[in-house]
Amino acid sequence: MKTAAIFFADGFEDIEALSPVDYLRRAGVDVTTVAVPSKSMNDKHIVTSSHNVRMIMDMTLEEYLERFGDNIPDCVVCPGGSVGADNLADCKQLLIHLENAWREDKIVAAICAAPAVVLGKTFIPEGKKWTCYPGMQSASNPSYVKNYSNKVFITDGNLVTARGPGAAEEFSMELVKILAGDEVYKKIHSGSQQR
């Protein structure tokens, strides 16, 4: 069974975080939701979205790193939301984990502000085509900006990036296709009445 971890921090964009959870679980991927610590958190397992929706995560980042250690999931996902992306980017342990996932040829995915704000603090986008919420590309490492494109989503090797909330379904379904294959992708696409 394929595995994925989705990292939630206070201020995450609801649809960008939950769409990958939903579609990947429909595809039979074992998805773990992970609470990344931030100063605003009152409970280490409860993360609050940008629209004030409180969600209980499967585990904290500390628990996740202890449990999985070097057994990194097949895919790691960073949702956006400008505050959520800032909170993810402030977590050095997460940035190290994302780089370790990249070194092990895992899928690294980010949407909205996260490609620029989070992945921009790592070496992951180096030499890769990528996208993010329009205007956020300047928040990235300046050397990565030359490979920025305003496409809805981009897959370049093991890097999957997307623009924002309106791209959440396509972004999530691209992850389904990569992790579960074309047949499962088509079944979910049809069964969920996607355009």
How would you concisely characterize the structure shown here?
It is built from seven helices and nine strands; from the N terminus they run βαββββαβααβαββαα. By secondary structure, it is α/β, with parallel strands linked by helices.
* Beta-strand content bin: 15-25%
**Helical residues, percent:** 25-40%
In CATH, the homologous superfamily goes by the name: Class I glutamine amidotransferase (GATase) domain
Number of helices: 7
- CATH architectural designation: 3-Layer(aba) Sandwich
Number of separate strands: 9
Overall geometry: globular
Domain unit count: 1
Assign the CATH topology: Rossmann fold
Mean of the pLDDT scores?
95
Largest sheet: 7 strands, mixed
> Which class do the helix and strand fractions yield?
alpha/beta
State Rg.
15 Å
How many angstroms does the end-to-end distance come to?
Answer: 28 Å
Structure description:
It is built from seven helices and nine strands. It has helices spanning 14-26, 61-68, 82-89, 92-103, 114-117, 168-180, 182-191, and strands at 3-8, 30-35, 46-48, 54-56, 59-60, 75-78, 107-111, 153-156, 159-162. It has a seven-stranded mixed β-sheet. A two-stranded antiparallel sheet has the order 3-4. The longest helix is centred in the first third of the chain and has 13 residues, at 14-26. The model has no long low-confidence stretch (mean pLDDT 95). By secondary structure, it is an alpha/beta fold. The protein has one domain (3-188): 3-Layer(aba) Sandwich (Rossmann fold). Strand 3 (46-48) and strand 4 (54-56) form a beta hairpin.
